[in-house]
Amino acid sequence: MHFDAVTESKSRLLSLLQEKSIFYGDFLLASGRRSHYYIDCRLTTLDPEGAWLIGEVMHSLICVEARERQTKVDAIGGLTMGADPIALATAIFSYSKKDAPPLRPFVVRKEAKGHGQTKLIEGSFKSGDTVVVLDDVVTRGDSTIKAMETIVQAGGKIAFAAVLVDRQEGGRQNIEKLGYPLISVFTRDELVREAKT
């Protein structure tokens, strides 16, 4: 992938996130903390232009990191539903680039279905796969860590985690304490005006 093309796409993605996905006010977060801003990535990840840009930028980020770590990534996914559109967009972009084979997307359920195959992981995952765990936003890292635990229990090997936005509130450190590197497309400081929690 041509570096300038990815840089341009990343710049447009930043603008799109700032335009569609950042809200300012007084918000109660899932962590129980309050914040003067809220990041709703789904308004960008589920937007046609946003999805294509995320696919391109995340694909590039994963490929560069995998090369540096000299590892081959088989599949990508994370906890539903923040990771779902990112995994699919990245896999579609991988297919469009004629990767051989393309990155395979999967979804980690929050709990197993009570019927059918009662699987916790849906889609193109199999035991033995080397995977990248995805998420839209990492704050404390809880949902990323939950996905990791499920993947490891199902026989997956985690290469690293990749997120769209790192809120810089300890999630990276919590994930890295478990021995898994985390990379992000953007940090809170790049995304949010006068970033303060």
What's the overall geometry? globular
The order of strands across the largest sheet is 5-4-3-6-7-8
Question: Strand pairing plus helix content: what structural class?
Answer: alpha/beta
CATH class: Alpha Beta
Helix content: 40-55%
Supply the number of structural domains: 1
Biggest sheet record:
6 strands, mixed
The CATH architecture assignment turns out to be 3-Layer(aba) Sandwich
Q: What low-confidence regions span 5 or more consecutive residues with pLDDT below 50?
A: none
Secondary-structure element order, N to C: HEEHHEHEEEHEHEH
CATH topology: Rossmann fold
Total strands: the figure is 8
Average pLDDT: 92
> Approximately what portion of the residues adopt beta-strand conformation?
25-35%
Radius of gyration: 16 Å
Terminal Cα span: 36 Å
Count of helical stretches: 7
How does this structure look, described?
- The chain has a 6-stranded mixed beta sheet with strand order 5-4-3-6-7-8, with helices on both faces. A two-stranded antiparallel ribbon has the order 1-2.
- The chain is α/β, with parallel strands linked by helices and about 200 residues long.
- The mean pLDDT is about 90.
- The protein has 7 helices and 8 strands.
- A hairpin with a 5-residue loop joins strand 1 (about 20-30) and strand 2.
